[in-house]
What we know:
Blueprint: E1 11-18, E2 24-31, E3 37-43, E4 50-52, E5 58-60, H1 63-73, H2 81-97, E6 102-104, H3 105-119, H4 121-131, H5 137-148
Parallel strand pairs: 4-6
Antiparallel strand pairs: 1-2, 2-3, 4-5
Helix pairs in contact: 1-2, 1-4, 2-3, 3-4, 4-5
Amino acid sequence: MKCPYCNAEDTKVIDSRPADDNSSIRRRRQCESCGKRFTTYEKLETMPLMVIKKDDSREPYNRSKIEAGIICSCHKRPISTKQISRLIDEIENELFAMEEKEIPTHVIGEKVMDKLKKLDEVAYVRFASVYREFKDVNTFIEEIGKLLSPGNKNDAQ
């Protein structure tokens, strides 16, 4: 495993334990060159998952794309990196539990929005505005109106 700080290839495992969800292994590592510590997660790769994009092209599933979208949506919100990581793990578990070899991007996007809506409404609206490609302010106001309607109010906050 390369060190994310200095790119040295010589790192040692200091500690290994099951991650929170018990479906992966958390490894604490230390770089032999610079001495910095970092954490890696090891997961069983069940099957290669392909994502069907809007233009019908296919590409391999990439966790970092979901992560980047969620991090951007949660910018300057009171959401920890641990919460974001847990959210992505939940989404991935649902995707892999579907046992499909190909999943359309809209399925992934809807799962992300469902989870964000429960976690933080502002992050949800930010993600939805990009994902659903809001064309004008009226579309944005309609989405906020759905959040404010009595049947859709998030009771967790």
